[in-house]
Design brief:
Largest sheet: 6 strands, mixed
Strand content: 5-15%
Radius of gyration: 23 Å
Number of helices: 15
Low-confidence stretches: none
Helix content: 40-55%
Number of strands: 13
CATH class of the largest domain: Alpha Beta
Oligomer: single chain
Shape: globular
CATH topology of the largest domain: Rossmann fold
């Protein structure tokens, strides 16, 4: 049995509870107000406290929630599945709020309310890392989430303050989005005044039956398709929406899970597409400020764009999803004792002292401190 968002609004507020069974990271990015987060594996142990209410089970797109609601009904609960899942809620909000917040309102918020925390950090990254040059043609890659949509608006603002000529194209690659996700992206682009160009591929279908690391392969394939299509459009750079928190989390994840010291670079030359570069102009912007911008403008974006989220065991595996969330929580705990910990993590890869490093790699060649140790005999630390 299913229930729609519109039907929920007709219920008495205290007569139901929405239980969100998506993974923790997706719930942190956005959830239905008033819902409670309970993982699928824990729902039977926790549902008893809601025995007197109608239980509405919410997943990403209403697939897993159907089975969970059925099991709850068999155990005597008044349980239903939210038709279309969390995406249906986002679609509802995008549709009903289209006349509340305009592109002009969003642009004004960037210039005024979020000037210091977003706009100035965007321009600082561009200047610090020399990301945009005269004559560039940049493909701003939009996935449909909050980060890439904000990046698109920031580039539009940058074009208004041209110090030198450069071109921008707003590129959306559809690797096989569900119709609902595709519609959310198109509606948000229209609402925000972003003239997107959409090209399609079948990447999702291509990797669906891959058993080992399908998400990694999917990401690699999507990056390659973006480079290829951007180059066809005459672009020499692609811009991705990774932010400051992505950078520091990547540093710690590399150390704790990969046994290596590395970072997410602000720009990279493509090894497979000659003349192409990848740039990350959101490099200095904090995620909490992006969320504040989103919420202040009453905007709603897709979370995970993969149409198989509800059926792919890799996508729906809390263990696989939890590493970055674990790092987020670790940083949060460390920050309680040291408020400068985030900045210190970020700066740590800018202050590497090779004289105190046991070994390192450069251009694929491994160097060890013993290689030159005897030559430095007599040098006092």
């Amino acid at each position: 049995m299913e229930i729609t968002i519109d039907e929920i609004y007709e219920l008495k507020e205290d007569s139901y509870i929405i239980i969100d069974i998506r993974n923790s990271e997706d719930v942190l990015k956005g959830a239905i107000p008033g819902s409670v987060h309970i993982m699928k594996r824990d729902i039977e142990d926790n549902a008893i406290k809601y025995k007197d209410k109608k239980i509405i089970v919410c997943c990403a797109r209403g697939v897993i929630s159907w089975d969970v609601a059925s099991e709850l009904r068999e155990n005597g609960y008044d349980a239903v599945s939210l038709k279309g899942g969390y995406v249906s809620y986002v679609l509802k909000k995008v549709a009903e709020d289209e006349n509340i917040c305009t592109a002009e309102d969003v642009e004004f918020s960037i210039r005024k309310r979020f000037r210091k925390k977003i706009w100035c950090k965007f321009t600082k990254a561009i200047n610090t890392y020399d990301l945009v040059k005269e004559g560039d043609c940049i493909a701003v890659c939009i996935s449909g989430g909050k980060d890439s949509m904000l990046m698109a608006k920031l580039f539009q603002e940058l074009k208004l303050h041209n110090k030198f000529p450069f071109e921008v194209k707003f590129l959306v690659m559809d690797p096989g989005y569900s119709p609902a996700n595709r519609r959310v992206i198109e509606e948000n682009a229209k609402r925000l005044g972003i003239p997107i160009t959409i090209f399609e591929s079948d990447i999702f279908d291509s990797v669906f039956n891959v058993e080992k690391s399908p998400c990694y392969l999917c990401a690699r394939m999507r990056r390659g398709h973006l480079y290829s299509f951007a180059k066809e459009l005459g672009c020499n750079k692609i811009a991705l929406g990774h932010h400051y928190d992505d950078v520091i989390e990547t540093i710690l994840m590399g150390m704790l899970y990969g046994a290596q010291v590395q970072t997410m670079m602000p720009k990279l030359h493509s090894t497979n597409f000659e003349g192409m570069e990848l740039i990350r102009p959101m490099y200095l912007i904090r995620e909490e400020d992006i969320k504040a911008w989103r919420d202040a403008n009453d905007l709603y974006f897709i979370q995970c764009a993969c149409k198989f989220t509800d059926t792919c065991s890799t996508c729906d595996n809390e263990e696989n999803q939890s590493k970055r969330l674990e790092i987020k929580r670790l940083i949060s705990e460390l920050k309680k004792a040291n408020p400068f910990v985030e900045g210190n993590i970020f700066k740590s890869v800018e202050n590497v002292n090779l004289d105190t490093v046991v070994a390192y790699k450069k251009q694929g060649v491994r160097h060890h401190f013993l290689d030159e140790y005897d030559e430095k005999n007599g040098v006092v630390e």
